[in-house]
Design goal:
This protein is an alpha/beta fold and about 280 residues long. It is built from 10 helices and 8 strands. Strands 1, 2, 3, 4, 5, 6, 7 and 8 form an 8-stranded mixed beta sheet that branches.
Length: about 280
């Protein structure tokens, strides 16, 4: 951790965040004791939490690779967390070095860490922003400095990986639709989301305990959704093959084996990529 990150974390009161819990589950170093304790409690409730995180990361890498190979060169990652090794910019720029990536996260520590990682990469940057406020993100992309990275008039891959479960049902369309429906033709949306079917694996008690960890430690409520509810978030976009599926079933040949590759029922998360 840099001194700037430590100062920012202290100013925020030392609370855990979803971004840094996720970073710890992935084996990253951009986290604090509060995040590690939250991760420990989460693993007690859901022993496969680290596998779920890795499954999500591998899906993200495959989705970005497919879209970059299809010619998309702009990526807008909302609720991005900390772009550790093998994240969006590395995958996209391996296909096309001119690819541009804008990471957006509400956690100031994640933003500082991200920009340190991205130093010397002029096509990529991270900004502090709340994906729950698409109006402010669109204002920044229309008139602010982020417009130098992302051009709304050109195709964009909009990424919501493992974040929309933080949005309650009564707000979910207000969060997703404004940016999704503003994107230029030829754009895409990437979504991964915890499935309501997770209760079949971990039971009501396990899922309830995991939710309580996020609420108590990171002030975040978790909402599970059915496949039908997740598909509705894509609006009029057209699903790419193989559709909305457990993460381990989305083009698995394009990355290292998913932790759920041989597990009956597969990943408790669903993923999809769709284009307009």
């Amino acid at each position: 951790m840099s001194d700037q990150q430590s100062d920012t974390h202290a100013a925020a009161g030392g609370r855990a965040t979803v971004a840094r819990i996720y970073d710890h589950l992935l084996g990253g170093k951009q986290n604090f004791p509060a995040d590690r304790e939250a991760a420990r409690q989460l693993l007690q409730a859901v022993p496969e939490a680290a596998d779920i995180a890795w499954s999500n990361r591998l899906f993200l890498r495959r989705a970005v690779r497919v879209l970059a190979e299809a010619g998309i060169t702009q990526f807008l990652d909302l609720g991005s967390g900390i772009p550790t090794k093998g994240n969006v910019h590395e995958i996209a720029q391996a296909v096309d070095p001119a690819s541009r990536v804008l990471y957006v996260d509400i956690d100031p520590v994640a933003v500082v860490a991200s920009n340190e990682i991205l130093m010397g990469n002029p096509g990529c940057r991270a900004i502090e922003g709340d994906f729950n406020r698409p109006d402010l993100i669109l204002d920044a992309l229309d008139d602010g400095d982020p417009a130098t990275v992302i051009d709304l008039n050109q195709p964009i891959a909009l990424i919501y990986c493992a974040v929309l479960q933080q949005v309650p049902d009564d707000r979910i369309m207000d969060v997703v639709a404004p940016i999704r429906d503003r994107l230029a033709p030829g754009s895409a949306i990437v979504i991964s989301h915890l499935s309501a079917a997770v209760t079949d694996t971990y039971g009501e008690d396990g899922v309830s305990t995991a939710k309580k960890v996020f609420l108590a430690r990171a002030a975040t409520e978790i909402t599970l959704r059915t496949d039908e509810q997740i598909a509705a978030l894509l609006g009029e976009y057209r699903l790419m093959a193989p559709g909305l599926v457990p993460l381990n079933n989305w083009r698995p040949e394009l990355s290292e084996p998913d932790p759920y590759a041989t597990t009956p029922g597969g990943s408790p998360m669903r993923g999809a990529v769709a284009t307009n």
